[in-house]
Amino acid sequence: MDARTEQLERSRLLELVTEYRQKGYEVLLSPKPEELPDFLRSYRPDMIVRRGEEKVVIEVKSRPSIASAQYLRGLAQAVEDHPGWRVELVMTNPEDALYSAKVEGSLQEHEIKSQLQVARELTVHHPESSILYAWSLAEATLRLLANKEGLDLQRSEPLRLLKQLATEGVISKAEYQSLMNAFSLRNAIAHGFKTTHLTPNIVLNLIEVTEQLLNSLNTSEPST
Asked: pLDDT tens across 138-165, in order?
């Protein structure tokens, strides 16, 4: 993880410390092994908060650092068997990492496919985190499609990229509408606004559309 990504995650973590303390939670930031219950001793959570019987293990991740999907799955499984405990994954704004001056390139097809499964697993209990993560994977897929079609849109704004692909007929009207709906909700959440319109089904639909577009990379011919 580069220094900029680490700084973004640390800043978001410190914001969460303040937010949870204001809500009356006891906060353990970067807890030491001896401060963890036995079932968490093999993990290093970013933060644990407690209030009454509620105990939350919080992990702050950005797209580059979430690649360790096995760690997150193991953590979720460890917590699942203990009443009163839950895991909360907080995603930093994917654009911050994407447009960093040190960006190393877009995710490739096999990376997107493997990470879509993580997004799917997050959907039921953490739709807000899941849509941020899933949208970053959808956007990476759109860039792959643009490359396949010979469109010079690598650094385009997501909305312009989406509209251009629809105009060129690379994505269907139905796919365009699904992505636009998800994009609006993703933006609201990424910028700190609440929305009552987000449901797990919306996130799952975004994941399914992304998978369809990934499949089209290997089945469709480039436009002429």
From this structure: 999 998 998 888 876 545 577 778 888 9
Start and end residues for every CATH 1.20.120.330 domain found in the chain: 106-218
**1-104 CATH:** 3.40.1350
Decide if 15 contacts 27 (C-beta within 8 A): no
Q: Cite the residue boundaries of each domain of the chain with CATH code 3.40.1350.
A: 1-104
| CA atoms 176, 182, 185, 191: torsion sign | negative
- DSSP letter for 65, please: G
Read off φ and ψ for residue 49, nearest 5 degrees.
Answer: -120, 145
Q: Which CATH architecture has domain 106-218?
A: Up-down Bundle (1.20)
Q: What is the pTM of this model?
A: 0.56
What tens digit of pLDDT does each residue of 181-192 get?
898 888 888 777
Q: What is the DSSP string of 27-57?
A: EEES--GGGS-GGGTT---SEEEEETTEEEE
The letter for the amino acid at 116 is L
Structural element, H or E, at residue 61: strand 54-61
